[in-house]
From TrEMBL:
The lineage of its organism: Bacteria, Pseudomonadati, Pseudomonadota, Gammaproteobacteria, Pseudomonadales. It comes from Marinobacter psychrophilus. This is TIGR02444 family protein.
Amino acid sequence: METAPDDITVIPQTAASLALPAVLQTDTELWSFALSCWQKPGVASACLSLQQQGWSVTRILCAAWQANQHRTYSGLEAVTVTEWRNRVTVALRDIKRALPKESGSCYNLRAGVARLELEAERVELALAWQTLNTQTEEPAMQDRNILIIGNLTAAAPCADSARAAASDIHQLASVLTFSRPGAQST
C-alpha cells in the first residue's frame, strides 16, 4: 500500500468493475413481492436477525418468492448476484453500520447510505430475477408450507446455519406464504 501525505493510507483498487447487463429491469414481480413481504409483521425483524447470523435477506426473499410461485429454490445463484452482494450491497451495509446512529452530524450521511443499500438490494433482486424468471422447471407438487420451509432452508449460508435457525425458518414460513404480492395469506 502507498502512503499519502499526512499518513493517510491509500488502498489501490485491484478489483475489476462488475459486469452487469446493459439493460436491467429493477421493477420486477420479485421486487414487488419483497416490498410486500417487508410490510408483513415480524418479517423485517426475523430477516434482519438472520442477516446478523450471516444470512442474505435477498436469498430469503428469493426462496419465499419461489415457494409462492410453486417452485423449488435450490440455493444456487448466478455468480453476478453473489459478486454484487459481496462487493456492493455488503460494502454499503458495512459503511452504514460504521456510522454512529446517535450522531446528529452523521444522520444525513447514514440515511443516504441506507438508501443506497436499499437500491443495491433492488439491483441484487433484479439480477436474481433474471435467473429465477427464466427457470422452466415444472411447478413443485409439495404443499406450499413444506415447500417454503425447504426453500428457506436452501437459502441458508450453510447447513449448520439452517439447523440453528430452524425456529426462525418456521416463523418466517408462516408469514411469507401468499400467492401474489398484496394477496392474503393462504
